[in-house]
User: What shape does this take?
Amino acid sequence: MIKFNQVYKRYPGGHEALKNLSFDIAEGEMVYLTGHSGAGKSTLLKLVAAIERPSSGGVLVKGQNIRSIKPAAIPALRRNIGLIFQDHKLLFDRSAFDNVMLPLQICGFDHREAAKRVRAALDKVGLLDREKANPIALSGGEQQRLCIARAIVNRPTILLADEPTGNLDTEYSTEIMNIFKSFHQVGVTLLISTHDEGILRQFPARALHLKKGELQAHSTGSGQA
Amino acid sequence: MRTLIEHFQVLRFTLRQLLLTPNASLLNITIIGIALSLPVGGYVLLKSVQTLGAQIAGTPQISVFLSAGTGTGDIERIGERLKQHTVVKRIEFVPRATALKKLQQSTGLSDIIGGLSQNPLPDAFIVYPADGNVATLEKLRDELKTWQRVEHVQLDSAWVHKLEALLDFGRMAVAILAALLSFALVAITFNTIRLQILTRREEIEVAKLIGATDAFIRRPFLYFGLTQGLLGGAAAWLLISASLLLLNHTLTELAQLYASDFSLQGLSVADSLSLLGFSAYLGWLGAWFSVSQHLWQIEPR
Assistant: This one.
């Protein structure tokens, strides 16, 4: 599903964010991406979503080479990837419902069918009763769940989450990880970046550990989540 | 069908955006309306003057002066010949004595004229041609000149040429004005859309991240430019119509003093549709320029 082959990412100015990365993520697998801040976790996720391109090496996502993908092909790729951001990237000029509606509008869904899907997604993350609220009125944990609802409403096959539990206390983190676990169970490929040791222990899975842009030994988690 | 619904949704969204900032929208539409109404007003004025010119030029005359000492028989023969000419509608004979009397009355030079020992004026025919075309008139003049006992033929077509030249000048001025103010319309839309793109930067970024195509992101801005241009054109139409109503009201009194029924003509249906179509197109163009200039700068990071 996702395949990195000797990937380097250099930024203008010479900073080398990723060095010689090679790994494979199979379809339906759940994988953690761990490491300190600045180790290159966000850069790696950006490569998968074609937000950045590798300086050298091959990044294959669903058979598409990100290094040579045409700009016109990027929207179709991203519709298959649900993105969950640490800073949520929610739009505060519209309701929670309309935030989740956005990906379906982009795909040109029929309004009634789309509304059904939006409510299903909001129900899944436990925000059905807040659909009319402005995201700014939601708590940090609720905002994160709203971001997840937006990422999954389009039923993508890959979910990328950048520090999804970053600023949340344990109770909220567990809630969100349970949501991810349920997606994993229905066959969605998950790549979750985190530095939360508690989560790794509570929901064990394979982890890719990055250190200064390099991949440390593959640490296979104790069994499947 | 799905695309149609999408476009309809974008249109609804655009109208909502316009209503969201009613003051700014109204101001923009008014500015566009005023900018457009100037050349369109000039056009309306020109068209009316042109019609008036055609009315007056429709009754031109040719004065045919006979040589001094032409006998009555010759005069009658020339009169008959003129009447039978295909281009001539009717003629009027002005004997030299009558001409002198008219001159005395109209110019107030009776003292000087009275002191003349003999009448210096020739007999003359005034010819009213059937056709007001300048080329036909000139041909007729040249033909009459070759006739015997005809001393001089005067065709007063110079003023028709002058009017034509003046109208050409006016047309050019209106064209330049239209070009400049069309550019202003494009610039106004360009700037409005630029501000919109800046304020909706976050939304555009998020939309790109979740797989929006460029066409999808561009569409609402293009619709906005189109709608704003169209409404600006409608504003120009209203301004012109209202101005014409006011101007014609006072013009009627003025024209009555000159025993004329001259009035400024309103915009025809075709003119109105062209105005609306053109302004909508310019709005769309301004939006398109703005979008292609600014949208690529917003890439998710």
In short: Chain A touches chain B at residues 49, 51, 72, 74-79, 81, 83, 89, 91, 93, 102-103, 105-108, 110-111, 150-151, 154 (CB under 8 Å). Chain A has a mean pLDDT of 89. Strands of chain A lie at 2-10, 16-25, 30-34, 56-61, 64-65, 81-84, 158-162, 189-193, 206-211, 214-215.
